[in-house]
Amino acid sequence: MSKFAFLEEEIKALHEQGLYNVIRTIESPQGAWFVADGKKVLNLCSNNYLGFADHPRLKEAAKKAIDEYGVGPGAVRTIAGTQKINLELEKKLAEFKHAPACIVFQAGFTANLAVIPAITGQEDLIFSDELNHASIIDGCRLSKAEVVRYAHNDVKDLRDKIVENKDRARRMLIITDGVFSMDGDIAPLPQIVEVADEFGAIVMVDDAHGEGVLGESGRGIVNHFKLEGKVDIEVGTLSKAFGVAGGFVTGPEILIEFLKQRGRPFLFSTGLPPAETGAAIAAVDVLLESDELVKKLWSNADYFKAEMKAAGFDTGHSETPITPIMLGDAKLASEFSKRLFEKNVFAQSISYPTVPRGKARIRCMISAAHEKDDLDYGVEKFVEVGKELGVIK
Ligand SMILES: *Cc1c(COP(=O)(O)O)cnc(C)c1O
């Protein structure tokens, strides 16, 4: 018998429960439409909020960075040194976020794995929203701190849990997603900061889905709530609205200095390559020059959401361009997604373990790359499939 027979069982179970991920092959850049599994489909599933993934300015900047710096950084920054373009990006991101300092990582995921274990240990407590992103959960696991989960966006529960546990803690760290990626709701950051200040806890927000989306020119959730200087640590990603790949942390100079000494993904994994770095700098430049794309993103999202609601779909309680179409059953969601694809609409179903069991959905990601005609096409096909499957009348 194969040593991996146990995996065959696992895979079979995933198929049976409708939880098996179908991963399509893409043969064109990300955009309003793209080529998936050989056919042109409407793209309602990428985090390319502003259309930067195929933006001429970013592509030009990436090519220029390759000409100047080559394709790879050679080794980790502590050994082979930091390419100057990385320092330029860090400076630019700190300015954009109105933060004292910034450090760039290979991904948002690794940014969380770097910062959480670097500042917490066995004697500390981490208060973490129950719906926080997997990379926050893994970062917490890598730190030896005890994790206290509080009810989603429930500041009263957070405060109660701090009161109950604070005497055991050397340090306390509160972590929340800024925008929750599966529902599109926003963390009550002003109230979280108030509670943190009351008890002297550090506050960290992961703004992966807020950058490029919330705040003035897409500066993110901290700017959105006018909390600059009041949130201690922000984690960001270059992989979503910025259209590239990579992650970063902004915060006090001393924290950034320490992460360069003790952040494990910084010390033991090669940093961001020149092309990505150059493209990310251009992304920030485009945002600094104009908020036109951010405005278009929001007007597209408002339009799509209103049309879907009018058609009778349950769009959950999103406050951002993330538009979940709540279906409940995982098999229904995956069948819905399959039929949409047959009609040239690519909108992925999302089920357990990414969302709780019984809360399967199709998540539509609206972008500034879409035009009104594209969104109308999407709504029309959703209505057709929704009627076929008895989701709407
Ligand atoms: C997507 C996401 C990440 C991971 O970012 P990558 O740059 O893709 O690794 C981290 N945190 C949150 C909240 C996210 O939504």
Describe, in plain words, how this protein is organized in 3D:
By secondary structure, the protein is α/β, with parallel strands linked by helices. It contains 15 helices and 13 strands. The chain has 2 domains: 60-289, 3-Layer(aba) Sandwich (Aspartate Aminotransferase, domain 2), CATH 3.40.640; 291-388, Aspartate Aminotransferase, domain 1. The protein is 43% helix and 16% strand. Helix 4 runs parallel beside helix 12 (274-289) and helix 7 packs parallel to helix 8 (189-199). It is globular and about 55 Å long. The termini are far apart. The structure holds pyridoxal-5'-phosphate. Pyridoxal-5'-phosphate is lined by residues 107-109, 133, 135, 177, 181, 206, 208-209, 237, 239, 247.
Short synopsis of the structure:
The chain is α/β, with parallel strands linked by helices. The protein has helices at 5-16, 56-69, 77-80, 84-96, 108-119, 134-142, 155-165, 189-199, 221-224, 253-262, 264-268, 274-289, 292-310, 330-342, 372-388, and strands at residues 33-36, 39-43, 101-105, 125-129, 146-150, 172-177, 202-206, 233-237, 247-251, 322-328, 345-346, 349-350, 360-365. It has 15 helices and 13 strands.
Give the arrangement of secondary structure elements:
Elements: H1 5-16, E1 33-36, E2 39-43, H2 56-69, H3 77-80, H4 84-96, E3 101-105, H5 108-119, E4 125-129, H6 134-142, E5 146-150, H7 155-165, E6 172-177, H8 189-199, E7 202-206, H9 221-224, E8 233-237, E9 247-251, H10 253-262, H11 264-268, H12 274-289, H13 292-310, E10 322-328, H14 330-342, E11 345-346, E12 349-350, E13 360-365, H15 372-388
Parallel strand pairs: 2-11, 4-5, 4-6, 6-7, 7-8
Antiparallel strand pairs: 1-2, 3-9, 8-9, 10-13, 12-13
Bound molecules: pyridoxal-5'-phosphate (PLP).
Pyridoxal-5'-phosphate binds next to helix 5.
